[in-house]
Write a structure and sequence with these properties.
Helices cover about 40% and strands about 25% of the residues. About 30% of the residues are buried. β4 and β5 form a beta hairpin. The protein contains four helices and five strands, in the order βαβαβαββα. The protein has a single domain, classed as Glutaredoxin, CATH 3.40.30.10. It has a five-stranded mixed beta sheet. It is of the alpha/beta class.
């Protein structure tokens, strides 16, 4: 299951985890976000132990949302070594997400 990432645990779970991470910036009212959510959940199961995969609700976490300049959702940030390695704005297929994740795992 995808982690619930927030302003207070972001650094611990993403930046300092020592693992690659996918962070889905989302909101409950966002239609495209609801389309991406099952993909994020599937990847969190398939890559458990290899990567941190979680979601940030932009309405409840303004600090981290502002820090990364999130203006459109869904925005998915891919982190490697605590830094942004890739970014995807909008909905995409599971294959696109998986390919970007595999690229940061190597």
């Amino acid at each position: 299951m995808a982690l619930e990432i927030n302003d207070s645990n972001f650094d611990e779970l993403v930046i300092n985890s020592g693992k690659p991470a996918i962070v889905d910036f989302t909101a409950t009212w966002c239609g495209p976000c609801r389309a991406v959510s099952p993909i994020i959940e599937e990847l969190s199961v398939e890559y458990a132990g290899q990567a941190v995969i979680g979601k940030v609700d932009v309405d409840d976490n303004p600090v981290i949302t502002t820090k990364y300049g999130i203006r459109n959702i869904p925005t998915i940030l891919f982190f490697k070594n605590g830094e942004i390695a890739d970014k995807l704005v909008g909905a995409a297929s599971k294959q696109v997400f998986a390919a970007k994740l595999v690229a940061i795992l190597t």
